[in-house]
Amino acid sequence: MNIHMRVTVLDQSARVLLVEDDPEIANMVIETLLDNGFNAVATGSAVEMEVLLREQSFDLIILDVMLPGEDGFSICRRLRAQATTPIIMLTALSDDIDRIVGLELGADDYITKPFNSRELLARIKSLLRRSSYTSASPQTQDPLQFEGWRIDPILRRVRDPNGVHISMTTAEFDVLLAFCRNPGKVLTREQLLSLTHAGAAGPVERSIDVHVSRVRQKIEPNVREPSLIKTVRLAGYLFTPKVERV
């Protein structure tokens, strides 16, 4: 099935790749993106997506779950193993477990069909803002360190005590940064959603638990007995290390 494809070249505009096999939805999303100043291109399968990714780079990928051939979950897992490009999943599945699976595989956000184009735009802008596509306030961008770890908000890089770069999704980085900027404070799930989604509509509250779990897997000495990110029963999470500006 061929999908109408349009690309526009605008200076300083974000490049968005949509992988969606429904022509009506694809055309609607692409038109919305173009009308709002984005560079946008649509393709209908993993095979066609790979061709585009070899030819050009993208700032964000919108990925449908139900695709011919390789499904969106599998594609998401593979993409996340290769890069940290923000990923939004499009799903017609209403069950929370399906959406949580996407987040666990490395997606940064999801939106359920049918969706409002304004909501999709809000989530795209939020993710791009969080991934430093646009400049952030300089006073909040000092590098921070804890327990030998270093997190750089401008470069959006995390290095372990041995200086090794640790790959994180946009959402994982934002969760860790929120903790580092609020050490010794109990943060509720609602506060974490607010701190990591810049006020835009975000995933369900439960998704925060998924992202926290993934951050723990990457920074905790013992994931089974977390010492850096403590769960505070009926309250939220507490980041225990002393954090210093570099």
CATH superfamily of the largest domain: Response regulator
The CATH topology of the largest domain comes to Rossmann fold
Poorly predicted regions: 1-12, 133-139, 198-204
Determine the structural class based on helices, strands and strand pairing: alpha/beta
Order of helices and strands: EHEHEHEHEHEEEHEHHEEE
| Oligomeric form | single chain
- The tally of helices reads 8
Whole-Å distance between the termini? 53 Å
CATH class of the largest domain: Alpha Beta
Report strand %: 15-25%
CATH architecture of the largest domain: 3-Layer(aba) Sandwich
The domain tally reads: 2
Domain OmpR/PhoB-type: 141-241
DNA-binding region: 141-241
Keywords: DNA-binding, Phosphoprotein, Transcription, Transcription regulation, Two-component regulatory system
InterPro entries: CheY-like_superfamily, OmpR/PhoB-type_DNA-bd, Sig_transdc_resp-reg_C-effctor, Sig_transdc_resp-reg_receiver, WalR-like, WH-like_DNA-bd_sf
Summarize the structure in words.
It is a single chain. This protein is α/β, with parallel strands linked by helices and 246 residues long. The chain folds into 2 domains: 15-130, Rossmann fold (3-Layer(aba) Sandwich); 140-245, Arc Repressor Mutant, subunit A (Orthogonal Bundle). 37% of the residues lie in helices and 19% in strands. It has 8 helices and 12 strands. The strands form 3 sheets. Strands 2-1-3-4-5 form a 5-stranded parallel beta sheet, with helices on both faces. A hairpin with a 4-residue loop joins strand 7 and strand 8 (157-159). Helix 6 packs across helix 8 (206-219). The protein starts with 14 loop residues before the first strand and ends with a strand.
